Structures are given as C-alpha cells and as structure tokens.
Amino acid sequence: MRTETGTVFRLQDYRPSDFLIPETRLIFRLDPRETLVTATLSLERRDPAADVTALKLAGDGLVLKSISIDGKALAADAYEATADCLIIKQLPSSSSFSLTIETEIDPEENKALMGLYRSSGNYCTQCEAEGFRRITYFYDRPDVLSIYSVRIEADRANCPVLLSNGNPGASGDLGDGRHFAEWHDPHPKPSYLFALVAGDLGVIRDHFTTASGKPVDLAIYVEHGKEERALYAMDALKRSMKWDEDVFGCEYDLDVFNIVAVSDFNMGAMENKGLNVFNDKYVLADEKTATDVDYALIEAIIGHEYFHNWTGNRITCRDWFQLCLKEGLTVFRDHEFSADQRSRAVKRIAEVRTLRTHQFPEDQGPLSHPVRPDVYKEINNFYTTTIYEKGSEVVRMIRTLLGEQAFRAGMDLYLKRHDGDAATIEDFVKSFEDAAKLDLSQFSLWYHQNGTPKVTLSTAYDQTAGTFTLHLKQSAIGGPALNTRKPLLIPLVFGLLGRDGSELAYTAPQGVDGSVIRFDAMEKSFVFEGLKEKPILSINRGFSAPIVLKDDFDVAHRLFLAAHDSDAFNRWEAINALLMDALKNAVGQEKTGAALDFPPQILSLMGKIAENDSLEPAFRALALTPPSEADLAREIGENIDPDAIYAARIALQASIGKANAAAFEKIYAANAINGPFAPDAEQSGKRSLRNVLLDYLSLADGGPGRAHQSAMQSGNMTDRIAALSVLAHRFPDADETRTELSRFEHDFRSDPLVLDKWMQIQATIPGEQTVARVRALMNHPAFSMLNPNRVRALIGAFSSANQTAFHSADGSGYTLFAEVVTKADERNPQLAARLAIALRSWRSLEPVRREKARETLAVMAAREGCSIDLSDILERTLA
Ligand code: 0A1
Ligand code: ZN
C-alpha cells in the first residue's frame, strides 16, 4: 500500500515516458505466500538522441530478488530499489536493451484486492488503475503499451486452471505435482489490462462466430457447483458480441474470450483483455437466487466489460485524467445495449433515476469534479458516477446533437483513427467534429465544467400574434461560481402539444434544429410562430440533457403530459414531478406538526396509472414508485430532517394504497404470471408492478398477512425478496417477519452472496433501532470485514440507503459507520473510501445532525495511519 501523502497529480504535467516497452515476458511461480515473478521487459528509448541516463519504474510493496540488464546482474550501486520504486542509474547507451526483474509477492496477505491476490483459495489479479506495480516494477501508466507473453507455473492439484490474457500457448507438466501454461496476447496493451487467474474452478463453455466468420471459444469460470448459475451470463455475452457487431461494427479479435467470477472483488468487474474478471454477484444467477434486477445488472455488466474490448482496450486512455474516454463511452454503449434488449423507455427512466440519486448529489456536493478532471490525489477515488454516468450522458448529448447517422460516422472515425492508441477526450471529440463537420468547442465544456446545470424556463403565449415564447436561463448547482461559468451548449429535445395531444406545427426560430433546441447562452428567448392555439410544452424529452429543470408548469400541465405526452420518459417525469411536489409539501406540513394531506387528484392518478393497460407494466411500476427519500432530500437541498422526509413518504404511500386498494387488488391479480420463469423484460415488468402493488396493499391492510402469503408462495427470488422487504420494512416486529427472515437465513446459510440480500433488507429497516441490528449482524458467521460484497450489503446499504437509521439524531449511526470505515481502511483502503462517500452531503443536514456528521468526518480524517484513499475523500468532503 502506498503511504506517502500529499502528492497531487495534474493533467498539465503529462509527459510521455522516456522509454517504450514493446514486449513484456512474465513468468509466475505461484505460491500462496511466496510467489516469484520474473519480468523481462524489452526497453526502447523513445528518443535515442535524448540524454536519458536513468530509468524510474513504479512499484508498490515489492521485494526485489534480482535484477539484470541484457542477462548481466546489475551491480549494487547501479540501481536503487525501494518497495515503491526502482531507479536504474546506470543504463546501457544502446537504443534498446532487455531488463529482467525478479520480485516476490504474498498473494495470501493481499487484502486490498489490488495486484495478485487470493480469493477463496484461487489466485486472481486486479490491475486497474495502479495494481500492476504490486506485481512487478513497471511503467504502470496507461500510455505504455506492450505485447505480453505469460507463463504460469503452479501446483496442479490446487490450480488445474491457469489463465491469462490473449490466446493460449503451450502447457504441460513440470514434475513435482506442478504444471505450467503459456499465454500470448498479440494486442499491445497497458499494464492495467493485464490479468492472471489460477485455481480450481468449474467452467461452462460455448462458441461465437464473428461477422467475418472467425470462431471464438467462450468460457465462464465459477466455483465448482455453480456452473448452472453462469448460463445467463453466457447468454448475455453472446448477445453482447452480436450487438456490438450490429450496432457499432466492432468484432472480437482473439481466439478465446474468458470470464472468471471471484467472490472477493472491489468493484463490479474488470475488462482485462480476453480475460474479464467479475465480482461473482454479476455473473451468478438463477430463478431461486437472483432477482430480476440482478439479471438486468448481469446483462448490463457483461455487456459493459465486453464493449470495453474496443472502447478501452483497442483504444485506451493516454492518462487517468481521460478515464471517462473509456468509461463514459462504454456506459453509453451498455445503456444502449440494455435499451435494445429490453424496453427503451423503462431503461431510460431507470438511468435517470440512478443519475439523480447518485450523480447529482456528487456533482452538487464537496466531491464534485468535472467529467474530465485535471487534478487528483488518488485515482481510485475517480471511478465515480460523474465519470461513468455523467460521462455517458455527454456521449448521449453528442448523439442528440449530431443525429444517429453522423454519430455513427464519428464513432467509426474514432475507432479507425485511434485503434491501437492511448487517446484523449480531445481526440474523441475531434472525431465527431471531423465526421460531422461541426465545431464542438462550446459543447466540450461539458467535460470541463462541473456542477449540475440548471435550466429555468418561463413561457408566454400571444394569441393574436400566434407566437409562443420560451425563455431559458442557465445556472448550476455545485461547481464553479455562477459569475465564472461559461454557457454550456444544452440540447433540449422538445415538442409543442395541442389540446388533443398531437404535436403542433410551427415555424421554428434560430437555434432550433428539428426537435432539438440548442440552448447555448446564459439566457435566451426562442419565439415559435404560427401557433393558433396555446401549446403545451414538453421539454427535455428522453432527458436529453442531464440537468435540473425548473419549469413553470402547473398541476394541470403536468397531468396533461402524464396522460398525453408521446415521449414516455416525459410522461413519467410529469408523474414524478407531481409526486415530488406532493412530498415536498408534506415534509413542510410534517415539520410544522400539521396533519399530512395529499391532493386527491394525485391519489386517483396513481389508480389510473395502475389500471392503464396500454402502458407496459414495468413503466407503471416506475410511475407508481414515489421519489426516494434521498431524492426528496436532494430536492429540498438544505436543513434536511430525514425523519420528516420518511414520515412524508410513508404517509403518501399509505394514502395511495388506501385510496386505490380495490383497483390495486384487481391489477395485482391480473398480472399474475403463469408458466415457467423467464428473466425477460415482460415477466420482470409484471413482477415489478405486482410487487409495488403488494407494498401499497400491505400498507392499506395495515398488517403483514398479504406479504407473508406472497413470501411463502414465491417461486423465485424477485418475489421472495420483495415480500421479505415489505415484511421487514413495514412490519419489522411482526412474527411473520421473524419467521420469514429465519426461513431465508436457513435456506441460504451456505451461500453468502444470497445472504447479502437478507443483510441488506435488515440494514435498511427504517428507524434508529436498526443501528443495533446492524451491529448484531456484523457478528453473523456469514459476515466478513474482508469481503467487499459483505461489507457493502450490510454497511453500504445502511449508510447509503437508510436515511433515518444512518442519520439517527443521537449520532449512533455515525459512530457505527466510523468504526467500520476505520476497520475497513486497515486492510482495504478502496473499500473504506467508497463507504465514506455516504456522508458527502452532510452540509445539507439540519444543524444537530450536521454537527455530529462533521465531527465524525473530522475524527476519521485525523486518525493516524488513515490511507491516502480515505483521507482524500474525507479531506475533500470537509473542505
Ligand atoms: N474498469 C472497470 C472498473 C474497475 C475499476 C477499478 C477496479 O479496481 C479495483 C476494478 C474495476 C469497469 O469499468 O468495469
Ligand atoms: Zn468500465
């Protein structure tokens, strides 16, 4: 683990490396405690004329065993090796030479899960962003591309499976119970894409033939006995490969594609060339153990990692400031893939909900940073929702501005022009400018200017002139001060609707291109002519720009859009806004002690939506789900009292349930699924509708009977978990809840991954008594502080999805949180830093909680031995 503090990395300091490493040969002699790594690097001076006399390579916690150049051991004074770096001071003057380094590492002790480590007895690696330097000394930076040849030697009994990147080569016996396998990856790659896996694993195999007829062997490796649970992931992989050919013309480029599922992993998955390593949570699924949401995530993440083969691997990043080059673009691609596989409208709504719940608070708080940052202390802390999700939104806006065809032409040009490169955001944008013959310089501000843009609109209709004026003003929440902000180019897809819901014809003003308003000034008016009736405006359709929109729409306007907008996203948006307004009003009432009431037309709207068979069930489920407590907190923005928010939301849900019980009951029954389980969009939509209704009906009943019934009858995990959440969250003290929790625990006692769901449900029971419950669960045999999935299921859920308990007024939630974050930090700083972001919005809390939160952060930040990862987050949060 790196321990030096205070180093700040800046984009402006970027310099190419002095040397290139065209080839890298690695030999691994695997041993749990003493693995020997022999690395032979062919080094080439980038500029043979330059007077470069020393070579500095990065390391992290390494023990150097030997070092030689061109086969000759180096004299002791020819180099300096510390755990964190290797400096060779005497170099041959030749333009190229070969450097051989032998290091020893301890995979068993590696609990940070970066570099080479052991998970359930199997060896695996994680090298992004800077894990390769924990394996050997190297130019561990993404712009140094090398062709890797790898030889793995290991005990045959413990490690029958030996995998690395690229295509398989020789393999054989070594005597003494050991064997070897060789791998060669012909595609030059940066060190962060290196991977090795060795262990005793089960496998499922399949094949894919690429568009040009090349056969590819596919394999997914999982723990023995879990092979069947990888079949859906394999299906998703094949669909991903086909989709990337059809939609982006990207064909796979090796003879094999391997995926390995491991149970200890810091993130979701990793796109290592030809050898993707996955958190097992995103591979394993069957009807009895995975929910529909799990299936959808598996499909999305399998797609995401596969799509990286072109956007990330064939074209990688010049430096880590360019992270969104691969991540934003690849998220955009996986979103499109999921939209094509399922319902586009439902997918878009889900994306926007995620963006608002996670990215908006980040961008509006102390951890706000541009999509393309220009400074960081710890790159691991920049795998953020801004880089990923806002980065994807920026790509989506490019498509909106260019249109489908020019966008595809820009992508084709980017892929062709930069294949084999370590590229930058400028390269990416230039490809679209050149393909579409467009100037995107103003648009590029989206990459550089942080904060959530806010657009305030007002409208006026002049009956006699037949003109409709739309006045737009831009500002931002978070990011640079308003007077220093430059106007963004904001693409707003829109429509003007007539009273019958049809799109009205008009003469468009300048700056309007078809259905897109290009809003490019701090303030601007757009005058539409030729309108004989007052139009009803639908704007930011499909959430064409990732902004906060302050409109002047009244309830009637929203109800109209909810019923008639041809844009499904904006129908949902109108419903969501109505619910948000009702909730905000109720929070105000709750704070003054007034009785909570909700407009009857909102309550009946919910009934109408549920009954509207022309809407797909998944859409209805989303429309029937009120904004989350976190969304409401963000919308209110200051002086947050989580108890008032909770009270308002549950009161609204109970009122909706009671007002529509009869209708809901009917719809619940009508959407029952007969026949075998399928994790497809249609069935999962019905299940989600039924389960939203189950919650409403249970609130209307005021008792656990219905949810208990459903839990007992459920044949799949989606329904079982939904029923269990209703029981635990609505009736935590009921006997039925205790019974069902025990039954679940018993059924999955030997499957910690499934038990995570059980932990998560209990960690999110509202109310401060959950603090004690979480403490008790930390002593459960299935819990482990060393496994990130376990910690996230219990502590991550508690701190990020349980507003009332985490923010308990007595501070007990924060105390527990600080204990766990500190403990995690001792072994796994990345995990600790990710948990710590749960307190990033502390400044919006009411004063008592705010002070307790600040103190908690300050104490954690002052702790001696706090990792760079964690202190970077804490310091920025407090700044
Ligand atoms: N590139 C991966 C994400 C990832 C990043 C860092 C990691 O290190 C612990 C692991 C994975 C992706 O976008 O899927
Ligand atoms: Zn990615």
UniProtKB/TrEMBL annotation:
Sequence ranges assigned to domain Peptidase M1 alanyl aminopeptidase Ig-like fold in this UniProt record: 451-551
Residues covered by the Peptidase M1 alanyl aminopeptidase C-terminal domain: 557-879
Keywords, in A-Z order: Aminopeptidase, Hydrolase, Metal-binding, Metalloprotease, Protease, Zinc
One term of GO molecular function: alanyl aminopeptidase activity
Record keyword Zinc present: yes
Domain Aminopeptidase N-like N-terminal stretches: 66-193
Any one biological process term the GO annotation gives: proteolysis
SUPFAM superfamilies: Leukotriene A4 hydrolase N-terminal domain (SSF63737), Metalloproteases ('zincins'), catalytic domain (SSF55486)
One Pfam family of this chain: Peptidase_M1_N
Enzyme Commission designation: 3.4.11.2
The protein's required cofactors: Zn(2+)
Every Peptidase M1 membrane alanine aminopeptidase domain range: 232-443
Reactions mediated catalytically: Release of an N-terminal amino acid, Xaa-|-Yaa- from a peptide, amide or arylamide. Xaa is preferably Ala, but may be most amino acids including Pro (slow action). When a terminal hydrophobic residue is followed by a prolyl residue, the two may be released as an intact Xaa-Pro dipeptide
Function: Aminopeptidase N is involved in the degradation of intracellular peptides generated by protein breakdown during normal growth as well as in response to nutrient starvation.
Family named by the database record: Belongs to the peptidase M1 family.
This protein's name: Aminopeptidase N
UniProt source species: Limoniibacter endophyticus
Upper lineage: Bacteria, Pseudomonadati, Pseudomonadota, Alphaproteobacteria, Hyphomicrobiales
